[in-house]
Amino acid sequence: MSLDVTTEEVARLARAMTLKNAMARLPHGGGKSGIIADPTSPNKETIIRAFARKIRHISEYIPGPDMGTSETDMAYIKDEIDRAVGLPRELGGIPLDVIGSTGFGVAVCTEVAAENINLKLSGARLIVEGFGAVGKHAASFLSEMGVILIAASDSKGTIYDPEGLDIKTLIKIKSTTGSVINYTKGEKLQTTDLFNINADIFIPAARPDVITASNVDILNVKLIVQGANIPITIDAEKILHERGVLVIPDFIANAGGVITASVEYHGGTEKEAFERIKDTIRTNTNEVLKMVNKQHISPRNAAQSIAMNRVKRAMTYRE
To answer: pTM of the entire structure?
Structure first.
């Protein structure tokens, strides 16, 4: 849900979801929808309910929360059409943004990828672009592995401290004030200044296409793990690969949310969701990197090859 979402963006996101579900071996296809509206609108509930009624008859499509929507919004959809995932606990759901399941998966993926390039996580410097539902949890889980968050951004700006940001304090400030720039320590910068900071790990966890061919050259990192959907253009990924930067594709790294949604839909628990995320993302990341190292191709080419083969095999069982 955003004011500038386009049909092209939704189509690209739908393809990413198809590949993501295939890689996660979920018994679902892939789809995406977009609502052109301000997610902070006082009429949000009315808009969400109207959207739900419009998709009532697309019975195979199960809505779940994404950028601009929350478990509360999924509760409204559930009330209208009796199908949604990522519901509040009061409705028997697993609120994936609250428990940080997508961020947890990103952290697991980062751990595996770092091992592949001999990057020690203890003391590794991390940048998070988009310190929201995914970014803050990814940073929190990675901090437990010894990673140091040195910069984080949101739509209002960037906060930077080479000595490290206190993640718990930063999360509290973001929650209470609406922006990371109200963090009292460190240097306040513009949102786009984030790309000029040198680090070991970069996690884009906000909008699509934040890294493009026009700004990719200023990035100075060793590992990029895509927390958001389609945050890097294909051209920019190619440039990074040629430079020797390891870039883990979105549908490999950020599958934690949709895995949780599937577990919820089939009556599972939060514990089962976390176990499934850890096993699935660790296995998939290793499989992709094994192909990368063996065939000397980019991680995206390897991941797409694996995922598309799974999709095609699944299609052979349909009339």
So the answer is: 0.91
